[in-house]
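C-alpha cells incoming
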C-alpha cells in the first residue's frame, strides 16, 4: 500500500515538475527540484538504503526524461543525496531544529555542488556564478522543504 501511495505522489510530482515554469537566474534556468524534496521525505522516514535506492530510481527516470546528453548524472547525484539524507533518519530524535536545518542545507549544498560542477564544466561560467547557483538552489529547496513540512509532509522538523 505504501509503494502505491509513493508511486502516486511521484506521478503527481512528475506532472507538476514538468508543467512548472522555470525561473531565470542569469542565463540559467531554475526549476525547483520537487523530486529532491520527495527524496528527502523518503530518506527521513526510512533509512539510508531506502534513500539511496529511491534516489537512484528517481535519478534514472530524470536522466532518461531530461538529461540524455549527460546520462547518469541525476542517478549519481540523487543516490549520494539519498544516502546522506538517510543519515537524518538515524538522528532525527536527537538533533535539535537548528542542527536538522543545517544538515539538510549541507546535504542540498553537496547535491547541487556535484550537479552544477558537471553541468557547468566546460562552459564559460565563472566559479562565482556556480557558487551562486548552488547556494540559491540549495536555499530555495530548504525553503520548499519547510513549507512542505508545514502543509503537506512531515519531515520531523518540529519534533524532538
Amino acid at each position: 500500500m505504501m509503494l502505491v501511495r509513493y508511486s502516486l505522489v511521484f506521478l503527481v510530482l512528475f506532472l507538476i515538475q514538468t508543467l512548472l515554469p522555470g525561473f531565470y537566474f542569469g542565463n540559467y534556468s531554475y526549476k525547483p527540484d520537487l523530486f529532491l524534496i520527495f527524496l528527502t521525505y523518503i530518506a527521513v522516514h526510512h533509512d539510508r538504503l531506502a534513500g539511496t535506492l529511491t534516489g537512484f530510481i528517481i535519478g534514472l527516470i530524470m536522466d532518461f526524461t531530461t538529461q540524455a546528453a549527460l546520462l547518469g548524472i541525476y542517478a549519481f547525484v540523487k543516490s549520494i543525496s539519498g544516502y546522506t539524507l538517510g543519515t537524518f533518519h538515524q538522528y532525527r530524535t536527537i538533533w535539535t531544529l537548528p542542527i536538522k536545518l543545517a544538515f539538510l542545507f549541507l546535504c542540498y549544498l553537496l547535491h547541487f555542488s556535484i550537479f552544477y560542477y558537471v553541468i557547468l564544466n566546460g562552459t564559460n561560467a565563472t566559479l562565482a556564478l556556480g557558487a551562486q547557483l548552488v547556494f540559491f538552489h540549495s536555499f530555495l529547496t530548504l525553503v520548499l522543504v519547510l513549507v512542505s513540512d508545514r502543509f503537506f509532509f512531515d519531515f520531523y522538523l518540529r519534533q524532538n
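note: The CA atoms of residues 84 and 107 lie 7 Å apart.
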